[in-house]
Design goal:
Strand content of chain A: under 5%
Number of helices of chain A: 12
Chains: A mainly alpha (313), B alpha/beta (341), C alpha+beta (455)
Number of strands of chain C: 7
Structural class of chain A: mainly alpha
Largest interface: A-C, 48 and 40 residues
Radius of gyration of chain A: 24 Å
Number of helices of chain C: 15
Number of strands of chain A: 0
Helix content of chain A: over 70%
Oligomer: heterotrimer
Helix content of chain C: 55-70%
Radius of gyration of chain C: 35 Å
Structural class of chain C: alpha+beta
Largest sheet of chain C: 4 strands, antiparallel
Amino acid sequence: MVSYIVKRILGALGTLLIIMAITFVLMNAIPGSPFLTEKSTPQMIELANKKYGLDQPLLVQFKNYVLNYLRGDLGVSLKMQEGTEVSKIIFGQGKFELSLKLGLLALALAVLIGIPLGCIAAYKRGSWLDGFLRVVTTVGVAIPTFVLATLMLVFFAVQLGWLPVKSNTLPDFKSYIMPVISLSAYYTCYVAKLTRTSMLDAINQDYIRTARAKGVKTSKLVLKHALRNSLIPVVTYLGPVTAGIITGSFVVESTFQIPGLGRYFVQSVLNRDYTVIMATTVILSALVIIMNLVVDLVYRLVDPRITLTTKGD
Amino acid sequence: MAENKKLIEVKDLKVSFYTPAGEVKAVDGISYSLGYNEVMGVVGESGSGKSVEAYSIIGLLQSPGKVIGGSITFEGEDLLAYTPEQMRQFRGNKVSMIFQNPMTCLNPVYTIGNQLMEALLCHDKSISKEEAYNRAVEMLKKVGINNAENRMKQYPHEHSGGMRQRAMIAMALICKPKLLIADEPTTALDVTIQAQILELMKELQREENTSIIFITHNLGVVAEICDWVSVMYAGKIVEQGRVNDIFYHPQHPYTKGLLASMPRLDADSHERLIPIEGTPIDLLNPPKGCNFAPRCSECRKICLREKPPFTDMGDGHISACWLHLQNKETQKDAGEEKPEA
Amino acid sequence: MTEKFAKISPFMVDPEPIEKAFQLQDGDFERATSDEKESVVEKHKSISYWRDAGRRFRANTVSMVALFIFILILLFAFLGPALIPYDYAQQYRTAQKLAPGEFSKEEQLVQNVGKHCDGFFATTLQAGSLTAIRKGDYYISADGKTYAFNVSKAIEKAILVYIKDSETPLSVVKMKDVNEDGTWNDSTPIETTDTPAEGATQIKLVKSVFPHVFGTDSAGRDLMARTMFGARVSIIIGIAAALIVLVIGSIYGSISGLAGGTTDFIMMRVVELIYSIPEVLIVLLLQVVLKDPLQAWFDANKTGFVGALGDLGSGIVSIFITFALLYWVTMARIVRGQVLQLKKQEYVTAAVALGASKWRIIRRHLLPNAVGALVITTCLQIPSAIFLESFLSFLGLGVSAPMASLGSLCSDALESITLYPYRLIFPAVILTLIVLTLNLIGDGLRDALDPRLKK
């Protein structure tokens, strides 16, 4: 079992390295330099390049990146907050914390609301409640996150004035509501749909028929036998959910003016701040990869058919 | 030890499926009864309705299927009048069922022990966990699973097909039901395992005095374990009788065809296998006359017009065929008829 | 064994006396011929797989309603622009920031003019340029007659008014001569002839000002026209991206499945690698990276295929490239799965000497299944492509001005959301409807083509 975990971690690091490489290549393919402003002269640019080591051959630069990162040195911002250490920007200025807060809340919402809703819909299949939930969830996965975020903003903040227009650093409970809901809505609905489908699938299985033939109570059939089997695909989906929530944070943070990591990433891309781009990409990718790893381990715990010593998916 | 009381009585049972394409008469009026400690085989092709009628006994019939006629009486009680809760308590307790595919019939995420104990605990809340555990272990031993204590902690995927079927049997018998319905329990198993499971079932049947309804399409299995046989075709029983009568003096052309199509070890290698020609009928639009007529080599004109009544051959042996009425006089000589090859 | 059983017959069916129930006829016991036997059996109407699927789809109310709404949206996006006189890019400086249905002051004035004549052409309602009708030959068709005239000095800030039964039906009214109620103090008649000069431009008269149904934005552009255009762009991008994914994924998956062995292994590892990369991060970078080089490429080649791509804009093309690079993996997996199934079938049927029937089995059973899976996946790719594109456009990384997509329209609307919320609502609702209906149609297709999936 330990060897398996080690193998997976190595694989994860490998993927991370590849992502760093891709990002590095892409960044250097962007024409223009971060130092190019209206006032800059070629000499200034050259000096700045030298200062930040951007005049070195690409492979050397990449090697430096990787080595530094292994040491925890994420470099220094080249443009947006020139001279400040990137690690300080991300972690010290509360950006990472904010995004993490939002993200975890959204994830929790998706799981804690989505799964029960899906179960209820499956259990009460064909009833009006099921129909209603299906409509809501179908619409829910059709609304792009930014549409929901902006619509909520218009409706609840602008028109009704119940909730603040700018959520900023999430000072109070009210400021959480719209960002978290718009961030998690799509995934809550998707998880609910997924749970419902896999529950209905599970209920069709032979082992449910056996349990029924044994005389097991219906509620127990659903909660004990069907549920655990149907959670398997839902757990697998949590990886993409994390990725999606990170993506969604770009939009949600921009819409509600929350100074989080997602918004900063978009800004860094638009501003061509290499070091920040690289650092943010790595951190966000690492989050996704970690989540996938965790999900994989949990998945193997939930489904005893797959032991931790089994190789290959 | 002869028990001649009736355990279960099925009278003119009719089950239909209401599909978008129309009403499918899966079971079109069948009757039989089974006494205590007796084993009856129900033989037929896929689509003959043999499983459907068993499902209606145990209340597992799901929409769009519905019992639309007849009655099922178990120890004097009308099963069709049971409330869902009564049916739930009845299932697994008085009547149990085991199914065809042991690979998919056990929940993969729970241990064998858990599922076995569940069979007990869902009916009798007063049993302590410990006692349930002990009885479960005992049952596993009874069905021939060695190392029972360890097996209790293992998951279904760690067992072979034969062992899983044994575990299923254990689950079915742990509450000591009076009737066990076995829906093709050996069909999905290797031949050698089949024999073992059959032996096991015979043994348990003797020990526990359980009656069995054994559904299969395999006549060889029927010969092994059954006392009585009902042959079904297209939702109707075409022939019924003691196992010896059916095998040595089959009356209905379909039964004869089934017997003839069985490959025999002592046959010449040149001899061709004799299948029954044709394909099963469409139950959406059953023919006016005898359901088997289009495939019957002995088909007469009246067979296409009217459905044949049952003819009693004596000692519980009945057959529904027009030919018997043609040879009414020769029926009493049924015992002297040579078996047809 | 015999002791166990009672001597009473356990079966309780009583044989019915036949004379009572049936009429036996002469010759009843003659053997039936095989023809007679066949006639009793009703042959199944063999329905083709596709017709059956079509029937199932049509029976699915939700999907049919979704299909209907989607067609309405298609009409809105593709036919709509022909129905309204406004263009998505034209800015009407006098008609800025209007609410839905509202008229600007100028427009209201002109509208009132319309009440006092049988037709008009207002130069003030045209875009930015000072001269609305330049020097040249023109003609108007009205009430079955043609009025041709020549303009020697440009007509601006004026209205061409047409009064049917007047001596000089066509006249020019200067805006400053128009009163609030639409009447005018002074007008200059125009000399007209019956025959238009060669190469004369036709001017279309209108009876009233077409309202800005969705309002206008800060630059005076009609929002309905922009929404129609944006819808068109989004839908086309969605379909094109889905097709790209289909083609690339199918080719890759087929090769992988057919080749088998090491090739297949390697190709699948690549798929897994791409799968494990969080795509959106890379997509964002790609958008930025590709923008300038693409733009340079387009600037260099303005004709032919590249020119056409250039018209789309670098934003859209880079979206296509992104899809081509990253999003085909799911499709590849599905296609490979189908190909593997096909291969298995080949071996099985090859073992049994069936000759021609082998192909029939493949054609009748496997290909419909395979095609069905492809159709469903492609159909469900479209909304996710639209999703992605609108996301990118919203962030400013998708389509570039003057092109508009529903995503960029939403983004534009954000700035002034407190003042003009309607600017957001229209594109947002239409975007949601597009994605919703496509999802429902895709679900309906899935239920229709593979009923095993549904209970």
